Every structure is written in structure tokens, then in C-alpha cells.
Amino acid sequence: QKEVEQNSGPLSVPEGAIASLNCTYSDRVSQSFFWYRQYSGKSPELIMSIYSNGDKEDGRFTAQLNKASQYVSLLIRDSQPSDSATYLCALTETLNDYKLSFGAGTTVTVRA
Amino acid sequence: GAGVSQSPRYKVTKRGQDVALRCDPISGHVSLYWYRQALGQGPEFLTYFNYEAQQDKSGLPNDRFSAERPEGSISTLTIQRTEQRDSAMYRCASSFSLFGEQFFGPGTRLTVL
What we know:
Distance between the termini of chain A: 38 Å
Oligomer: heterodimer
Mean pLDDT of chain B: 95
């Protein structure tokens, strides 16, 4: 599996602030990128997917992809205590590859 | 509708025993994936099926691990002669198609004593 690197955190942000999470990957051919949220003791759930360079916004979440720099990020605006979770970066290697390679995750704590 | 279900939710076994972990995907989902997640890590790919065909088993650690999905629905991951290093959370995911979002089940926590 390809290497996916994330800062483990914890990342602590005050309520209402922006949480910024970063992910770098080692293989230039990686095609599809995903952010999963995992609450403690629960299973991962998909919150964002991004396939092309640039920004993609969905509600309070924005994913940013830069394939040249092999970098994908997730911004959480107006952070809420319910956003406290571990955020997992994942990718697929090629267009015909459907298995996900995950990073170790970044733990986010939103302080009320 | 019902999500991905896995059974048992917890399994404690002694070293050397065989275990079978079951995954029941979301109805209509043709693709099924098995992952293993260690504490503090992201899920690690094991194998996946498209319908009943096992398309990729490159993530299975060794030949003690096998998986099947004979009728293209329920899948079983079998670990023979378990070892303590097999202890982990085993997660199953399914998707409507190969390109679809993967929905994860609650996992089976395996502990090998």
C-alpha cells in the first residue's frame, strides 16, 4: 500500500474556529482522495471525496487537492464540539483500483 | 435501510484456533471490502470482492487468512491457526459499485490470547 502521512495531533481548536488538517502521499499516480471521520469506538464514515486539483466545498467542510505537491487538506469551518473525532485521509492508487489506503488519522478536539 | 452488519462483534479465542468473521453488506451492494484496523491507525486493506469474485487479495498477510463470498452477498473472513499478532479490529465495507462510496460496518474486535 502507498504511504499516506498525517499529523497524529491532537489538534485542539476553540469552538467556531477553523480546523485545518493536512495529508501528504508518496505516490504521484494516486487518483482519488477521501476524508473519513471516525468517532471514538465507531466505524469510519465518508465526509468528503475529491478527484481533481483545487477546492471542493460541502457545507462547513472544504477539501483541497494539489497533485503536483502530493498534498490534500481538509478545512472545517465554524468548528463544533460534535466535530471532535479522528479524521482519516484515504486514497486509491489508480483509476482501476478501488482499495483504500489510509493514513493513521488526525485527532481533532473542539473546545466549547 | 440497514447498514453493513458484522458478526460476532467481539471474538476472544486462544492461539492456534481458527476463527470465522462474517460480513453482511448493504442490500444491493455488489462490492465488498475487508480491512484490519489496529488501535491508533487507519484501516489496512486486506481483500475485496466484486459480486462473488475475489478481485484483489494482495493485503492478506499470509496464507492463514482467506475470504470468500460464494453467492455475492455475505462474506466470511477466516483466520486459521490464530496468533496473538492477529488481534485487531476487522472491518468490512460495501459499496453499490466499484466506484461507489464505501460504507463501513461496526467491525469485529478479535482478541487472540
